[in-house]
Specification:
This protein has 670 residues and is an alpha+beta fold. The two termini are 31 Å apart. The protein has 4 domains: 227 residues, no CATH class; 112 residues; 180 residues; 72 residues, Arc Repressor Mutant, subunit A (Orthogonal Bundle). It contains 20 helices and 16 strands. A 7-stranded antiparallel beta sheet has the order 8-9-10-14-13-12-11. A 3-stranded antiparallel beta sheet has the order 2-3-4, covered by helices on one side.
Length: 670
């Protein structure tokens, strides 16, 4: 297919990319940072590359669908409906983004709104055919949503337990001296050496295969999509890949223990790092390639394009009338409507950037902590505010917990009451990623239950509590009673992304702030919330945000659900209007067809109708016409008649995808 330079297409594409990047740049920075520091999110780094490859594979289809040379509906009222639908989708996406910023999990809402925004903007800038060609690439953006920490830890704990049990049984069956022990945090396989010492191999979330499982799922979906084979083979590849990666992780655990038995723990732990998540993903992908080619006869990268010997006969035509393949794409002219859209989107993007919703409250210099290595010197200053009726003091730094969790700091403070109230404890945890700051309810309830053990606490209350109005800040209220002794604990905690002064300079870190109080009376936990809230609000205000939200942002955040519901309702009405418009078009086309008196014209339309389940090229229509009428019809004369029928909206031509190549096919409008 010959493609001429197409400046309008380049301009539209740039408008789409720049607008999306400008409005979501804060979110991209955060998830990229998480991907660089967290194994759970490292798969995010490859998603842009996979999307780029998918778009590259479909470049010819996309260029053909964005061209106006194969469309006669530029002035159809469906175009207006398309633009309104796209605009409403963009509004819904940004309302979700705004509303999410006032919740306990803002980044998840932000990234979840991204595909909706891209779908809407694609509809406004391009058309529905282009959107259909891009829909998988856009849906792939949902893999950017950070996995929920609680669900990830639950799934990782379950997988770790199953892996440990299966690996233990296999190791036992082949004579390796091992013992399986379930600790509070994770199962451990102890390897007994000849000297009688035991080498522990902890099967935690990192060893559970969860990280490689998530990454491999993405690759399995990607491979299943790009192969040029029937749907059942795509589903087979995806279904086959999941048990493969799970089995490979169990084999990895077994190999590491065996190596530890033969060569010692040092080599075993080195092998563990070598056989990490990405190594498993690579091996699993290669296994899928081999099985797909040998057992399913799938050619993943080899092209299966149709062979047509007559395309060269139509070098001066836009498409081959025999096979329907698009031969030439001429650049569109930048219409006045397209130019106005580009200007409007640019202006609207700039305005939104001025009222950009901060993802998390960023802090100024008042809240500082100087962090060095746990064995080195550290200085803590101005970390918490002075509160009337309380004296604040630093209690201790949990260096051992920092080593285990990978946190930069785990600090404990205490507010001692001057009026004989119960003391209030403050926990401040600082880490590069949110995953290292585990939710309280997950650590105390979810983790032990997923390991088959009874939780040591009973949950009394769990809900979200609003702390600040501007910027909106939501905390989580968690009350529980310990089962082993009579103590009730109430915790009010929240996450923010803060700037800390570190040994390497000022850096962005995740922070979890917990306001805690204890009592021996479980009936007091509701009253304790009233004591914790003023302290929590004072701390949240002290960690002063750099930028307050505008009144527009606050209004949308507070009334987000209502506004999303109203906009979605309007969107549904517009979509129903589009369906009604299509029904009216079919009714008119059917009536127009009934008014045709020329027998040849009727037989041509009937030929197209008979080819509905096939690719109705000009050549095939001519053959079917001969079967029906018994007469030959020149292809050029037939092409002219098809053009006339298209102009009166009885039939339409459409671009279809055949092995990522654009082909022209005809179909009736009724």
């Amino acid at each position: 297919m010959k493609i001429r330079n197409n400046p309008p297409l380049i301009i539209k594409t740039l408008v789409l990319l720049i607008a999306t990047s400008a409005l979501y740049w804060q979110d991209f920075v955060i998830i990229t940072n998480d991907a660089l520091h967290s194994d759970l999110s490292t798969h995010i780094l490859v998603i842009p590359l996979l999307i780029i490859y998918i778009i590259y594979r479909k470049r010819k289809i996309l260029i053909a669908t964005t061209s106006n040379q194969f469309s006669t509906t530029q002035h159809d009222k469906n175009i207006l409906i398309k633009d309104i639908t796209g605009t409403l989708l963009c509004i819904v996406a940004y309302l979700i983004k705004w509303y999410g910023s006032s919740t306990f999990q803002p980044i998840e809402y932000h990234i979840a709104s991204l595909p909706i925004f891209v779908v809407g903007l694609t509809l406004v800038i391009f058309n529905t055919q282009t959107l259909r060609s891009l829909i998988f690439s856009i849906a792939f953006l949902y893999f950017l949503v950070p996995p929920p920490t609680r669900l990830a830890l639950e799934a990782g704990s379950v997988l770790a337990t199953l892996n440990a049990r299966i690996a233990f049984k296999i190791l036992k069956s082949i004579g390796i001296p091992v013992i399986l022990s379930n600790t509070y945090m994770s199962p451990i396989i102890y390897l007994e050496t000849l000297s009688g010492t035991q080498i522990p191999f902890a099967i935690d979330v990192a060893c559970s295969g969860l990280y490689s499982f998530i990454g491999f799922t993405i690759f399995a979906v990607f491979i299943a999509y790009i192969i040029r084979d029937p749907l059942y083979k795509k589903i087979t590849i995806f279904a086959m890949g999941l048990p493969i990666i799970y089995s490979l992780n169990i084999i990895r655990i077994i190999m590491i223990v065996i190596i530890g038995h033969v060569s010692g723990p040092n080599i075993a732990f080195n092998i563990f790092h070598i056989l990490g998540g990405w190594t498993l993903i690579l091996i699993g992908t290669l296994v899928i390639f081999i099985i797909s080619e040998k057992a399913l006869n799938i050619q993943i990268f080899k092209s299966k394009s149709r062979q047509c010997n007559r395309c060269n006969n139509y070098e001066d035509a836009k498409y081959c009338m025999d096979c329907g393949k698009v031969l030439k794409i001429y650049p569109n002219k930048m219409s006045r409507n397209d130019l106005l859209k580009a200007v409007f989107i640019t202006i609207f993007t700039i305005l939104l950037m001025f009222i950009q919703v901060p993802v998390f409250a960023l802090t100024e210099g008042a809240a500082e902590v100087f962090i060095q290595q746990p064995t080195g010197v550290y200085t803590i200053t101005k970390i918490l505010p002075e509160i009337e009726e309380y004296d604040v003091r630093f209690v201790y730094r949990d260096v051992e917990f920092e080593k285990i969790s990978g946190q930069n700091a785990s600090l404990t403070f205490q507010y001692l009451s001057k009026t004989f109230k119960k003391p209030i404890w403050i926990g401040i945890e600082v880490a590069p990623t949110k995953l290292q700051l585990h939710p309280w309810e997950v650590c105390l309830i979810t983790t032990p239950e997923t390991h088959g053990r009874e939780a040591r606490v009973s949950q009394l209350d769990l809900r979200d509590v609003h702390l600040l109005d501007n910027p909106p800040l939501t905390a989580r209220y968690f009350a529980f009673q310990r089962k082993d002794y009579n103590e009730t604990q109430v915790i009010l905690y929240w996450y923010i992304r803060s700037t800390f002064k570190t040994a390497e300079g000022h850096q962005q870190k995740w922070t979890k702030i917990s306001v805690i109080q204890f009592t021996n009376n479980p009936n007091e936990y509701r009253n304790m919330e009233e004591e914790l809230l003023p302290v929590a609000k004072a701390i949240a205000n002290y960690w002063q945000p750099i930028t307050n939200w505008s009144w527009i942002s606050l209004t949308i955040a507070k009334n987000g659900l209502i506004m999303i519901t109203i906009t979605t309702f309007i969107l549904i009405i517009i979509i129903l209007m589009a369906f009604r418009n299509d029904i009216e078009k079919k009714t008119i086309a059917k009536y127009t067809h009934s008014q045709i008196s020329n027998l040849d014209d009727l037989q041509i339309i009937d030929s197209i109708k008979a080819l509905e389940k096939e690719t109705a090229t000009v050549s095939k229509i001519a053959k079917k016409y001969k079967e029906i009428s018994g007469k030959d019809l020149e292809l050029e004369r037939l092409r002219i008649k098809l053009k006339v029928a298209e102009n009166i909206k009885i039939i339409k031509k459409k671009i279809i995808n055949v092995n990522d190549e654009p082909y022209i096919s005809w179909e009736t409008n009724f």
